[in-house]
Amino acid sequence: MNTGSDEPGEVAMAPKQTDSGDGAAAADGVGGTDTGRADEGRSERGLGSRAPEFVKARRFLHLSWQVGVFVVGLAVVVAGIIMLPLPGPGWVVIFGGMAIWATEFVWAQLVLRWTKRKVTEAAQRALDPRVRRRNITLTVIGLVIVGVLVGIYVWKFGVVMPWKIKDQ
Questions:
Q1: Helix (H, G, I), strand (E, B) or coil at 167
Q2: pTM above 0.90?
Q3: What are residue 66's phi and psi, to 5 degrees?
């Protein structure tokens, strides 16, 4: 899965580990991580944990942090899945849960990068004038067909209310 750009040689890499001075390894996610895009002028953070340094410095605290982030993200994703058939912004909530997971897990960061790239490509295709004309034409044809079918139904059966007002 190519998650960065459309360049064939690009590979997603975890941030480099540096010694923070107290003997604990900390991720260099602030600005020194090279993600292979430094020449593009983007200030995109590297992959990896966004936990505070004092949390990453203690193994048990960092593991507890990851469990907490996973549980909160899971609750949000499950709420989004429940909202899919019910009224509510299901997909938005699901992607919100993925964003919560992406603060801590590389796999979620990769999924979000891939999703963002695909949505951007779809938006660019939708803005193409030929595609817009085709979509408008298909919508108008569909509305005309629905209008004709409703007209035939009303002509054949008339407008009948499902309740009787005269009996009350």
A1: coil
A2: no
A3: -65, -40
